[in-house]
Specification:
Blueprint (H helix, E strand, L loop, with lengths): L3 H26 L2 H8 L2 E2 H8 L3 H13 L3 E4 L2 E4 L1 H5 L9 H20 L18 H23 L1 H9 L1 E6 L5 H9 L3 E7 L2 H13 L6 E5 L11 E7 L9 H11 E12 L11 H15 L7 H10 L3 E7 L4 E7 L2
Parallel strand pairs: 4-5, 4-7, 5-6, 7-8
Antiparallel strand pairs: 1-3, 2-3, 8-10, 9-10
Helix pairs in contact: 1-6, 3-4, 6-7, 6-12
The structure holds S-adenosylmethionine (SAM).
Length: 339
Amino acid sequence: MPTLDDLRSTVMSAAQGAMTLQLAYIGVTNDLFESLARDGSASADELAARAGVDAGYVRRFCDAAYAFGLLDARDDRFELTDLGHAFRPSTRGTLMPFAVQAVLGAHMAERAAGLMKTGERPGESVLAERATVLPWFGPMLEASFAGLFEREIVPWLEVYRDLEARGGVAVDLGCGNGWYLRKLVARYPHVRGVGLDGFEENVRHAQAEAERAGLADRLSFRTGDIHHFTVDEPVSLVAMNRALHHVWDRREKVFSTLRDAVVPGGAVVIWEPSWPEDRASLRDPRRRGMAFQNLSEHVQGNHFLRPAEIEEAMRSVGLTPRTHLFAEGAEAVVVGTKA
Ligand SMILES: C[S@@+](CC[C@H](N)C(=O)[O-])C[C@H]1O[C@@H](n2cnc3c(N)ncnc32)[C@H](O)[C@@H]1O
């Protein structure tokens, strides 16, 4: 049996972990870490001037980031530690998503705490309640999942080899910042991509990133609602990545639309966190985050899905489903082929 002192020391290190992430969030969202990496060590006042932010805040931030091992100090000059470097958004395999999730998670926890009495579920607008978080939502998802997609999912799934052979148009519904289509068309020169998202800001961001990557001639993004999506040309593949749980309430119509959108022999590819059949596996460190996020999905009017439910919805519209699990079972890609 752990003593209260044992529990106190466990909780204290968890609390300090949270503070590390909160500080990392400030460093990431104000470009402070990138600035130190790009232009070298700086006093707090120099760093503030470089980043175009307030020196008083930066002085306090630097002391705190030093205390938590994100910055080192020599005399009055600060530089990044290895940990600080790891949070830079441009670092390969960056830890930035943990910082963004920590702050978004705190916001969602506060909302859930307040809403629990009445049961009110305000919907997806809660994501926009924190102005500094919103622009980091797309980069957070890209940094969290694009690597897994390229390393494990694309090489493993036959549906992508079929797409390469067939060419044509791939559609991404609920495309966010468009990272999925960027990766896809960069890999397959005969594929074009069309992305749709309900948030106008996401679409602008997706278009800008496509231009930056030199892929804008084969990618187009538009604002629109998945429920009113229509195709104007034959589509080889329709993907929804972490978007199906947003429209699950109206799944019958959504799945008919998906089925009708693809050509015979084409595929519908749904990627969702894999909600487990048994509660015990939620204790698995790979799935704990999903359990927490499901509470924040509830605030937004959504919930996570079991792969068997997605398969069932595919069968109900005549698609032939097959589930593939990744990330030790935490991520499910369900491929539905159209005969
Ligand atoms: C969790 S994000 C996933 C974004 C992206 N697919 C990714 O994996 O990075 C869900 C996205 O679905 C979009 N979305 C949700 N409901 C939608 C709807 N009814 N019509 C269009 N987009 C929607 C949201 O705006 C958001 O960008």
